[in-house]
Amino acid sequence: METQAEFVDTYLDAATVANRIAEIGAQITALGCGNQPLVVVCVLKGSVMFFADLARQLNLPTNLVFLGVSSYSGSTESSGAVRLTHDLTLDIRDRDVLIVEDIVDTGLTMSYLLDILRARGPNSLRVCTLLHKPARKRVDVPLDYVGFTIDDVFVVGYGLDFDERYRNLPFIGTLRFGPN
Ligand code: IMP
Fold it and tell me: Does residue 63 lie within any of the structural domains?
């Protein structure tokens, strides 16, 4: 039986990603925050690398918090089902909140996140995504900051996985399957 090997081709190299994050960090910093620190939400697990790098580009008071969601399971297609796996440990009522996501693909995950966080009464809710794949949009979500708009390709690395692998790659690559 023929086996399928996986190959990763570079799509966005580490320097390109870092430069763009510095630009977004400067934009967010320029807007400042209110009386209280900006609540920066890391959406686990995919945005962990982006979140860590972006947070270090924010020159303002922040509270860094984590939210776990699960949407895909070992596949390159969205199941459409979103599940909360880890909740925030901070009350966001009346706070300025920035959601940091790795990629907005169909938009279903972000739409779910916005619904549950809006219901908690924040003063403001902004969305920052490293990648946006508009070709596969199923719901409209407001995106305040977008790192890169990408083609309809499945990407891995820099936090993004395929079947829980490749998250540790320092760059963003596309996954290609081929015969051994
Ligand atoms: P959406 O709900 O379809 O917008 O997908 C959001 C989530 O699906 C992201 O947070 C990722 O975890 C995952 N995802 C979507 N596209 C990709 C991809 O190209 N590579 C890896 N994960 C992806």
Answer: yes
Q: What is the CATH number of the domain that holds 122?
A: 3.40.50.2020
- 117 domain residue, yes or no: yes
Six-digit token string for 174: 């596309």
Residue of the CA atom closest to atom 19 of ligand 1 = 154
3-class secondary structure, 17: helix
pLDDT tens-digit series, residues 73-112: 555 565 567 889 999 999 999 999 999 999 999 999 999 9
Question: 152: which 2 tokens?
Answer: 């309809």
Phi and psi torsions of 111, nearest 5°: -60, -40
Q: Which ranges of the chain have pLDDT less than 50?
A: none
* Cα angle value 99/79/133 (rounded, 5°): 50
Q: What residues have CB less than 8 Å from 115, skipping those under 6 apart?
A: none
User: Is residue 131 in some structural domain?
Assistant: yes
Mutation probe of ligand 1 site: the residue of 71, 140, 168 with most atoms within 8 A of C-beta: 71
Active site residue 94: no
Number of structural domains found in the chain: 1
124-132 and 96-104: which strand pairing? parallel
Q: Is the Cβ–Cβ distance between 126 and 97 less than 8 Å?
A: yes
Residue 92 Cα, ligand 1 centroid: separation in angstroms?
A: 25
Of the candidates 13, 53, 105, 163, the residue annotated as catalytic is 105
